[in-house]
Design goal:
single chain; 261 residues
């Protein structure tokens, strides 16, 4: 079985993150592979066995994607691809750019992603890929068991319970953080990953969406800004028994300050 796994490199920050004037985190120079993406790679490697292949692909800044891809290669994947695009607003909805890359590659039975990235926690990438490629989508997948060569039983994990069933490939699958325990890279695979060639795919035009659909999609997505939480005020005790009238006035005033009344 041939799997395509989309992964993301995460820019690390200090314990007390700094925020620039545009509301973006200032990285500390450390790059790491999005943790749940390791589990997506592990799921693909388990399905590949001895005869299948696993390709990891990533879109973003070149040095960040290269670090993530080499981390994926060190786990035992066979090919790594960095995705580039000069399409306007491509970074606003990267899921569509990933779908275009999958459309170009074509040689896959299943597409894996992690459920969400730790730096934005949106969890929309997998659904965007599936929608653009017109493939069935399964998210929060916690268990995946082969039944036939192109059929699997699955369990999706939700806060209120689980959903189980059977799926048929091709499909897009976003794995949950509890689906497996990723293997640790060996010294041999780490050295091989450092020396491995990283291929490149250029997305210069859209083939899965019309220009009007693209403009409508990108215009509906606002820019993300990170803001610090306001300082929490110390709790104030109201002694109702000592002065009932003043206590009620103080309580009402506090509620109004919170915008409740």
């Amino acid at each position: 079985m041939n799997s395509l796994v989309f992964i993301k490199g995460i820019l690390g920050t200090d314990k007390q993150p700094a925020i620039d004037d545009n509301g973006q985190l200032i990285p500390n120079g450390v790059v790491f592979l999005n943790p749940v993406d390791k589990r997506a790679i592990e799921a693909a490697l388990q399905l590949a066995g001895d005869s299948g292949t696993v390709t990891v692909a990533s879109y973003g800044e070149e040095d960040v994607t290269a670090s993530a891809l080499r981390a994926g290669l060190s786990m035992g994947t066979q090919q790594a691809i960095t995705i580039k695009s000069d399409i306007q607003d491509a970074k606003v909805v990267p899921g569509i750019i990933l779908a275009e890359a999958a459309h170009q590659l074509a040689n896959y039975d299943v597409i894996f992603t992690g459920e969400e990235a730790v730096d934005d926690a949106q969890g929309t990438t997998g659904s965007l890929i599936a929608d653009a490629l017109k493939l069935p989508y399964y998210d929060n997948v916690d268990e995946l068991t082969p039944v036939q060569s192109d059929q699997f039983t699955y369990k999706m994990k939700w806060s209120q319970g689980t959903v189980s069933g059977q799926l048929k490939l091709p499909a897009v699958i976003s794995v949950d953080s509890t689906i497996n325990k990723p293997r640790l890279p060996s010294f041999k695979t780490k050295i091989a990953a450092k020396r491995a060639q990283i291929d490149t795919i250029e997305i210069s035009k859209l083939s899965l969406l019309t220009n009007d659909e693209w403009r409508q999609l990108t215009s509906s997505v606002g820019n993300q800004r990170i803001v610090r939480l306001p300082e929490q005020q110390p709790a104030k005790t109201i002694d109702y028994e000592s002065d009932k009238t003043e206590s009620i006035q103080t309580l009402v005033s506090a509620i109004k300050q919170q915008g409740v009344l």
